[in-house]
Design a protein that fits this description.
The complex is a heterodimer. Chain A is α/β, with parallel strands linked by helices. Chain A has eight helices and twelve strands. Chain A folds into two domains: 119 residues, Rossmann fold; 96 residues, Winged helix-like DNA-binding domain superfamily/Winged helix DNA-binding domain (Arc Repressor Mutant, subunit A). In chain A, strand 4, helix 4 and strand 5 form a beta-alpha-beta unit. In chain A, helix 2 runs parallel beside helix 3 and helix 6 crosses helix 8. Chain A is globular. By secondary structure, chain B is of the alpha/beta class. Chain B has 24 helices and 25 strands. Chain B has a six-stranded parallel beta sheet with strand order 3-2-6-7-1-8, sandwiched between helices. In chain B, helix 10 links the parallel strand 10 and strand 11. In chain B, helix 9 runs parallel beside helix 10. The longest helix of chain B has 66 residues. The chains are: A alpha/beta, B alpha/beta. At the A-B interface, helix 8 and strand 11 of A face helix 20, strand 19, helix 21 and helix 23 of B.
């Protein structure tokens, strides 16, 4: 994991800010704080940070709006904090450009894990990756080949495309809307059952135990994620 | 009259051009400078410059435009004024009649609405437009005024400003062109603005204002002194007859009533003669009654044969002191009216009888002649067939007698003729009966009295016989006819009563309000051949009353119904308000409240008298019925509220227990940690773990509570989509990984599962709860088994079974049968708490069922059945 040196917390609840702050300062990370969305955007603009932890419910503008405006000019990783029952907001924030989310209450260990995943993905990006290997699975993007335990697995074009989207965003949640839009187009937005069918097939072809997947994880109500 | 909270100020003048609008504006300007919020609602400038310059700089509410017959007319914008809420609004020409299509027929009704909204109104009015003065104005000026304002409008909280100039001054102004521009002026001078006219009108104006001052004074006195001096209120009865003059009698009675501060009652008596009248003439008495109502009178309709008797009966029971009745025009040789008045005078004891001389405006006279002619024609027409058949009877009889004339004595024929006449009288009307008795005398004379075949009589005794025969014939026919008419009337009344009884019976069988709506529709169609639609009041959440409309009402209909409901007045077709509507809307009142509106559609035809009578009584019955059902409904709602209140408290006590346990653990652990030193680091870690575990439990409970309140909240809709249930199970197990702590969860899927239409988050929560439950209550040495299978039958189910299985015992093979399951085996709410609640809520939300069974060794098995019928839409996935 790349060592972080400076992060920003945009969150209006002092208790949560306090816990996160003490957790990071202990590790020698500089923590900037704001309890307002607008102010948070300004802080990042004048003094760019390496990661933003963003609450959805802010007193001035919504976290979704903050994510959207930061994404206009910055690729900084953003992790959203949301309360349970805010599935819609989560999806909107992810579609607006946030990288991941955590549902309150969450533990520091979970937060650390998410941050690790997000920064690792960012570190590996840059050039288009053409070959992936996880466990006993190998994916060769250029020749459209997937090999599991030395045996070639046949995937349909859509299955392959689906897998590729998840791989390109490894460890990151990809929303249902995003996948449907890129595979079938925007007028199929309601046809989420397409995703279920393809995911079911992918799991039975690639996972050891399809009912308890290791790689192809469903984030209920939000989307999918490929976990390394 | 409804309560109005705004104050009305009327600038009253004798005619146009006296400067009413000018005075009103001048006052308004002054008040505006003093800071009163005054706006112009409607102002008619007539191009008068002085007036226009006064209006400069005053705020004007835009008028509303109404298209009528291809032209655009502008009217007062009542809604706009009410929403603007000024302190005072200026509205010119109170007597104005609005264009058809406007909400109200008359401007004064607009003004009433504005007053009710608490806004003060200042307006202008010429004295000749007062309803009660129409007759007099006609007499003195020869002009029949059609735009009238009810006098009751000027009673109560009203200020009157008299704007007075002398007739000469007005004529001068007129000649100077200050009143009418250009070519209009000379014509106006010739027609209306004659000095004698103006003088008369001025007298009326001054007298009206003097009356008013006097009555104010009286009122003042009656407030300050002992009221007993003033005695009880006098009652004045006006009798309405089916002719056009009746409205004059009503106005005359009203003037008397208002000058002595008495109460006015208008009476219409429907005798058997009434049913023979043309509808146009019957309309006259209805119109007179309507005018009476606008003048604030109470109206009574009686059915009876003897008009005088009915009048006196009402007069006595209502304790009336004066009776007003129209003086019959002299050349009316039918004696009925005269005898009526004679009878009234002779039997009225100490009641004063006023005979009102009826003015005959020319147009009315024409109208009347036309009507008379029309009704005669109609009578003749309707009895044509009767006439022929009675002639036929007499002819056949005469022929028969002629054959028998040599065998039977001729006086016997006379008896037979009388029999025939009485037969005719029982069937046909009076006129034909009398004619028949006359004809039979002629026929008897001609054929059977010597000398035969001539009307001449040789024997003088026959003259006496003829006379007797004619007299007896007429008497029989009159008596028989009266009996017949009476029977008919009785029949007619019985029919009304029967219809009413039928209607009331049918609605009393209704069990709820929507049933009433249906029944009203059917029964009105069945009994009255009318289309009806009932809307009733419902209290919405913020306890504002709203109408629940019948589904057949269009948006326009609903607007009229709402108006009628809000104002507690009839509206729609045939009324003064929103008369362009196709229906007639009757507010249904119970006590002081309006609880609904009945809409009647009669293909744009006015209702007949008996229809309105029946409807009136029917609405009364409806009101009690609606009230009863509303009360029942409220009671039911209250009960169910109590039930849910009880449920809520059980629920709260169950979750507060669930919440307290982890909280206590967290509190205890944190307290211990605070008191420890650095040396006991391992203990601190231990306690911190406890805190973390317990807080996880706490957050799971909170999530359950949130889900539960969401599912149970009113109007909750599940957020379903096509999901793979295996996916959900996988996700649930991942969430529980920490809690499971290595405990095995086995998933058995018997076959290919279809995609299900479910709310995945809710179902995930259900599965989490079931697994947690097994963790909590199941034996230590067990694994958790999740089975999924499809059971098909009449309904297809996805069966989800979560159970414990002790290691080593491969298959426990315990048969369960939900129907036969022993009650003691079923886990109930108390032993299950919040988890049970959430499970049953989730299953309910999916129309599914769920049951938990205790097996031997404390093992628990839960079976959830999700019904499904459809498949996801097919589509080009690849």
């Amino acid at each position: 994991m790349n060592k972080l040196s400076k992060i920003l917390i945009i969150e209006d609840e002092p208790q949560i800010r306090k816990v996160i702050r003490s957790n990071f300062t202990d590790q020698g990370v500089k923590v900037l704080e704001s309890y307002l969305g607008e102010e948070g955007i300004r802080i990042h603009a004048s003094d760019p940070v390496e990661l933003i932890i963003l609450d959805i419910g802010l007193p001035d503008i919504s976290g979704i709006e903050v994510a959207r405006r930061i994404r206009e000019w910055s690729a900084v990783p953003i992790i959203i904090l949301s309360a349970s029952g805010q599935e819609r907001d989560k999806i909107d924030a992810l579609d607006a450009g946030a990288d991941d989310y955590l549902t309150k209450p969450f533990s520091m260990a979970e937060l650390q894990a998410r941050i690790r995943a997000v920064t690792r993905r960012l570190g590996s990006s840059g050039i288009e990756q053409t070959f992936y290997k996880f466990g006993n699975i190998e994916v060769d993007v250029q020749s459209y080949k997937v090999i599991k335990a030395g045996v070639e697995v046949h995937l349909t074009p859509k299955e392959f495309a689906f897998l590729l989207i998840l791989l390109k965003n490894i460890n990151k949640i990809v929303t249902q809307k995003f996948i449907i839009n890129s595979l079938w187009g925007a007028n199929h937005e309601k046809d989420t059952h397409y995703l279920r069918i393809i995911m079911k097939n992918l799991r039975s072809k690639l996972e050891e135990d399809p009912t308890r997947p290791k790689f192809l994880i469903t984030e209920l109500g939000v989307g999918y994620r490929f976990v390394e | 009259m409804t309560v109005r909270s705004g104050k009305l100020r009327v600038y009253l003048g004798m005619s146009a051009g006296v400067g009413k609008t000018y005075s009103m504006l001048a006052d308004a300007r002054r008040d505006k400078d003093r800071g009163i919020d005054i706006v112009i609602g409607y102002l008619e400038m007539h191009g008068r410059q002085e007036t226009e310059s006064l209006a400069d700089g005053m705020e004007t509410i835009p008028r509303t435009s109404i298209e009528y017959q291809g032209r655009i007319f502008e009217e007062l914008n009542v809604d706009e004024i009410i929403s603007r809420q000024p302190q005072v609004v200026l509205v010119d020409e109170l007597a104005h009649t609005n264009i058809p299509g406007a909400r109200n027929k008359k401007r004064y009704q607009d003004v009433e609405e504005i007053l009710q909204a608490g806004i003060n109104v200042r307006t202008t009015l010429n004295v000749q437009h007062l309803e009660s003065l129409v007759g007099i104005v006609k007499q003195v000026s020869g002009v029949y005024i059609q735009e009238t304002v009810p006098d009751s409008l000027l009673t109560g909280n009203v200020e009157i400003e008299v704007v007075d100039i002398t007739p000469n001054q007005l004529l001068d102004r007129l000649k100077e062109g200050k009143v009418y521009k250009g070519a209009k002026a000379p014509r106006a001078l010739e027609n209306f603005f004659r000095e004698e006219n103006l003088t008369a009108l001025r007298e009326l104006l001054l007298r009206a204002s003097a009356d008013r001052v006097e009555s104010d004074l009286l009122k003042f006195r009656s407030h300050t002194r002992d009221t007993s001096v003033w005695g009880s209120k006098e009652r004045i009865l006006v009798c309405v007859a089916p002719d056009a003059m009746s409205t004059d009698v009503v106005r005359e009675g009203y003037r008397m009533a208002s000058s002595i501060k008495g109460e006015l009652i208008a009476l219409s008596v429907e005798s058997e003669r009434y049913s023979e009248l043309s509808p146009e003439r019957r309309q006259n008495s209805e119109e007179a009654l309507r005018v009476a109502r606008t003048l604030g009178a109470r109206t009574i309709t009686r059915i009876g044969h003897d008009v005088a008797f009915e009048i006196l009966e009402v007069a006595n029971s209502e304790n009336v002191s004066q009776i007003f009745i129209g003086k019959p025009p002299l050349p009316n040789f039918f004696l009925r009216r005269v005898t009526l008045i004679d009878k009234l005078i002779s039997q009225s004891k100490d009641i004063d009888i006023h005979l009102v001389q009826l003015a005959k405006p020319k147009d009315f006279e024409l109208d009347r002649q036309r009507q008379n002619k029309f009704s005669i024609l109609e009578d003749a027409h309707s009895s044509w067939a009767d006439f022929i058949s009675s002639i036929g009877i007499l002819t056949v009889l005469t022929f028969l007698f002629w054959l028998l004339r040599d065998f039977v004595e001729n006086l016997n024929f006379m008896m037979a003729y009388l029999l025939a006449v009485s037969f005719i009288a029982t069937r046909y009307n009076k006129r034909i009966a009398i004619l028949s008795s006359f004809l039979s005398v002629l026929a008897f004379d001609f054929f059977f009295v010597p000398p035969f075949n001539t009307l001449a009589v040789s024997d003088f005794k026959y003259a006496f016989v003829f006379l007797t025969m004619f007299a007896v014939g007429i008497t029989i026919s009159l008596l028989t006819n009266r009996v017949r008419a009476h029977t008919q009337l009785l029949h007619y009344r019985e029919e009304r009563t029967n219809i009413l009884y039928g209607l009331s019976q049918s609605i009393s069988s209704a069990r709820n309000l929507s049933e009433i709506q249906q029944i009203v529709k059917e029964q009105l169609e069945l009994f009255l051949k009318l289309k009806g639609a009932l809307s009733f009041r419902v209290k919405s959440l913020n306890s504002v009353s709203e109408l629940f409309f019948d589904e057949t009402l269009t948006i326009e209909d609903q607007a009229v119904a709402s108006w009628s409901f809000n104002n507690s007045k009839v509206a729609g077709f045939g009324t003064d308000t929103l008369s362009a509507a196709s229906g007639y809307y009757i507010p249904i009142k119970f006590g002081f409240e309006t609880i609904g509106v009945l809409a009647i559609f009669n293909n744009l035809k006015p209702l007949s008298n008996s229809q309105s009578w029946i409807l009136e009584s029917f609405v009364d019955t409806l009101s009690t019925c609606i009230d009863r059902l509303t009360k029942e409904k409220e009671l039911r709602e209250l009960n169910s509220q109590l039930d849910s209140e009880k449920m809520r408290s059980t629920f709260l006590s169950s979750i507060s227990h669930d919440l307290r346990t982890p909280l206590a653990a967290i509190q205890g652990a944190a307290g211990l940690m605070a008191g420890m030193g650095v040396e006991s680091i391992s203990q601190i870690t231990n306690l911190a773990e406890t805190i973390e575990d317990e807080s996880l439990r706490l957050s799971s409970i909170i999530r359950n509570v949130l889900d539960l309140t969401r599912v149970k909240s009113e109007g909750f809709k599940i957020n379903a989509s096509w999901v793979d249930i295996e996916d959900i199970i996988g996700s649930a197990i991942r969430r529980l990984e920490r809690l499971l702590n290595g405990k095995a969860v086995k998933i058995e899927i018997s076959e290919e599962l279809p995609l299900m239409y479910l709310d995945e988050l809710l179902v995930e929560q259900l599965i989490v709860n079931l697994i947690e439950n097994s963790l909590k209550y199941g034996p230590k040495n067990s694994e958790i088994l999740i089975e999924l299978k499809v059971s098909s039958g009449t309904t297809n189910f996805l069966e989800l079974v979560v159970s414990d299985r002790i290691f080593g015992m491969k298959d426990q093979n315990i048969e369960y049968d939900i129907n036969k399951a022993d009650d003691s085996n079923l886990l109930t709410q108390s032993s299950y708490g919040l988890g049970f609640e959430i499970c049953s809520a989730v299953m309910n939300a999916h129309d599914g069922t769920f049951q938990t069974i205790k097996l031997q060794d404390g093992l628990i098995k839960t079976i959830c059945l999700f019904p499904f019928s459809s498949k996801p839409p097919e589509g080009p996935i690849e």
